[in-house]
Every structure is written in structure tokens, then in C-alpha cells.
Amino acid sequence: MTELQTTRLLLRPARPGDAPCFALGVSDFAVARWLTPLPFPFTLAMANDWLRLAPENGPDKSMFIIDLPGRGLIGCVALTSEIGFWIARPHWGKGYASEAARAVIDWHFATSNQSHISASAHHDNRPSLRVKARLGFEEVGRDMRFSHALQHNVPHVLTRLTRERWMEREHKQCA
Question: Where is the N-acetyltransferase domain (predicted)?
């Protein structure tokens, strides 16, 4: 089971005991409104099922619990057809999403032969779009997606990060 360590975070596979904190985090409408595929309200039973069915961490599909040592579960980052993440509201604005996503992107490009990573966000989710821009994602289009929390279609910004762009950016940061 793959675990990733960053300066402040442990990214680890989901465990059954994570369900209460997971449900609590995504049951906050301020978080849930941005999570297009998740229903709202998100119950403990849903969290148990979601975590039980979480993919094993491999180069094609992964889901990492974002664990802040001493505080426990503060969010999640997943990479399936797109990379996505959420952070519990008490932990917003501290750089945890960027730190966790950066570690997953590094791991993904080191363990796969994929040429790019896709992502999307609601058109008005400025914090998520800023995180993606800082990581090097570039806008490649727009579409409409059904938001289960909002119960209507929402305009989405589609972004992509190529392996080449990631390696160039990381090389410049190390130089």
C-alpha cells in the first residue's frame, strides 16, 4: 500500500475508520458544493461505501487520505480520469491542497507512463483553479457537468498538466 510523505502531510490509503471524518468533511456544504460527483448530504453509510470501494493506489487510479499528523484526516486527493481534491474547511488557506496534489503528481509521473493529468473545477471555484494554475495546469476547454450537491448543471473549466511541463517546472524549482 503506497504512502506518500510531504513536509507536513501523510498521504495514505483509506481505512474503514476514516469514514466518520470523511463524511463530516464532505457534509459541510461549503466543501460539498464544489465536489460535482458527490451527493449532498453525504452520510456516514455513503462514506463507508465510498472508502470501501476506493481504488488501490496504483499508477492508473489512486485515492489518498490527507492526514495531518496530530490532527488526522483533513481531506482527500484522488486521481482517476482526473485529479481532484478536497480539504475540510478548518484547514483551508494553509497550502495543504497544493502540497498534497504536488506529491501525488510527482508519484504519478514517477510510476506511470501517462503523458498528462487532467483536472476540472467549477468555473467559479477560484481557490481550486488557483491551486491547479500554481501546479502548472493549463486550461484546455470548458463543459457542463451535473453537480449532485447543487442539483443542476454547472460550467466547468477543464485543465491539463503534461508530463513535460511538470518536469520542466520541477527542474526550474530545483535549479
Answer: 9-164
